[in-house]
Amino acid sequence: MSASAAQASSPSKTAANRRGKDVLLLQIIGYIVITVLAVFCFVPFLLVVSSSFSAEQSIIENGFQLIPSAFSTEAYSVLFKYPEQMLRAYGVTIAVTAIGTLVGLFLTAMTAYVLQRKDFKWRNQFSFFFFFTTLFSGGLVPWYLMIIKYLHLKDTLLVLILPMLLNVFYIIVMKSFMSSIPEAITESAKIDGAGDFRIFLQLILPLAKPALATIGLFIALGYWNDWYNALLFISNENLMPLQYYLYKMLGNMEGMRKAMMQSGAVVNVSLPTESLKMAMTLVATGPILLAYPFIQRYFVQGLTIGSVKG
User: Transmembrane segments in this chain: where (predicted)?
Assistant: First the structure.
């Protein structure tokens, strides 16, 4: 190798080494930041778990602690005092979440697919109609009268499913994602004789798995955490979802505690109010935490891939 060639290769090696060091430094900083964020996310959850197993008097005297100073399962004993009611509430919530997520996700994807089709003549008008509903609504009273008086959905599972079936924001996100799918796929399928519904089911939906997983998680979380619709429309105890059942239990516990404090008749009884709240948090969030890892690999891709068109 000549001297000129050695001199030419030396700066390139130096630049490559510098880039390698920069990448390594960036990775180290990234891992440190992610670790700190993970600790900040994990510590509150650990505090909830610890507090749910703490004695009520210990929480009142010492506050919430990462390590319980007085271990107690009284909160879980109160929470599962009537296990058949808890299991029934779980069953209602699981059924509503499963049905609502599947149907809502299918309708969201189908609506987004139609709105992103450039050959759909009225797509701008329908898009404006959907967007308009995010700015203005009829209000609570007309909506309540429509559900009760005209649709006759009171004390039915449908009243827990239909009001949350479609979300305009999810439609917009899904539409953005499907717009990044090449039109050549649809055109080639039409040349082969495939209809619109077949194209949607066999081509578009498999390509939209990341967006479907992401939007599906959001829809499922909405159904799982919903208690307001049950508060308005459910009076049958057999149809109470989990969140509303826990809400009523906590309300009854608070009412009992206030009545005891005002009357002063019972002094030695301590109701596990604070520890019960933490136990309820674990019971309500446990299934969602278990389901999240299965769709985690789609989550980031579903949020980012539709934002940039290639």
Answer: 23-47, 89-114, 126-145, 157-178, 199-221
Which token pair is 280?
């309820």
Residue 274 sits at φ, ψ, to 5 deg, of -70, -45
The pTM of this model reads: 0.78
CA distance 146 to 154: 11
Task: Record the tokens describing residue 12, joined without a space.
Answer: 């390139």
Q: Are 71 and 53 in contact (CB under 8 A)?
A: yes
Show Cβ contacts of residue 281 under 8 Å, excluding neighbours closer than 6 positions.
48, 52
- Using CB atoms within 10 A of its CB, is residue 211 exposed (0-12), middle (13-18) or buried (19+)? buried
Is the Cβ–Cβ distance between 179 and 306 less than 8 Å?
Answer: yes
Q: How far apart are CA 93 and CA 244, in angstroms?
A: 10
pLDDT tops 50 at residue 201: yes
Buried b (16+ CB within 10 A) or exposed e, 173-185: bbbbbbebbeeee
The mean predicted confidence, pLDDT, of the chain is 81
- Cα–chain center distance at 240: 20
Mean pLDDT of 282-304: 69
Q: What is the pLDDT of residues 155-187, one digit of tens each?
A: 899 999 999 998 999 998 898 888 888 888 888
Q: How many alpha carbons lie under 13 Å from residue 286 in its C-beta half-sphere? A: 11
Q: With contact defined as beta carbons under 8 Å apart, do 208 and 111 qualify? A: no
Residue with tokens 């670790």: 35
Which is nearest to 233 in space by CA: 134, 161, 130?
161
